[in-house]
Amino acid sequence: MIEEPRSAVQRKADTLALLSSPVLDGWVATDGPNLVPLTLAWFRERLIAATDGANPTAKTLIATGRARIGLGHTRDVVLVDAELERWLPVTEAPEINDAYTTQNDWDPGKAGPSYVFLVLRPTRIQAWREADEIPARTLMRDGAWLI
Question: pTM here?
């Protein structure tokens, strides 16, 4: 059964529900050759990734300041283009660690001193289910919600 296209308001609500859902897993791509799965958190309109600072994705993201994150399934996808706002050791960010741990099933604060939080500011968010939603898929542009 094919559903009617969602309104922009509904797509934004669905996107925010996904971003706030427990155990938010996504595919993170940087300018390097890496596409990696990372667990993320949505905190104060930012996506938070936690990973080892020596990880190639972390190094590339810190060097370039840009990432694209794919969330959801192929027939209900959310794509986020983001800029690295800052990065910091997990041990120096108890408030971020609490928010991350509350949303997910893992506490990066216990992962060791090499782990960092990558705080990503979304600059563009697109969401669509089927081809009929593609023309109006952009929900955020230049860091501002369009709805």
Answer: 0.94
Structure token pair of residue 53: 């600072």
- CATH for 8-142 is 2.30.110.10
Instruction: Provide mean pLDDT across the span 93-108.
Output: 96
Which tokens is 60 given? 């590339």
CA distance 25 to 126: 17
For the stretch 3-44, pLDDT in tens is 789 999 999 999 999 999 999 999 999 986 678 999 999 999
- Residue 123: closest CA among 45, 42, 49, 48: 45
pLDDT for the residue 3: 77
Greatest Cα pair distance in the chain: 50
Distances (CA, A) of 39 to 2, 71, 104, 138: 31, 10, 8, 23
What DSSP state is assigned to residue 107? -
Q: What is the pLDDT of residue 30?
A: 92
Q: Residue 133 is encoded by which pair of tokens?
A: 């939603």
Q: What are the domain boundaries of the chain? A: 8-142
Q: How many CA atoms lie within 13 A of 68 on its CB side?
A: 11
- What is residue 30's DSSP assignment? -
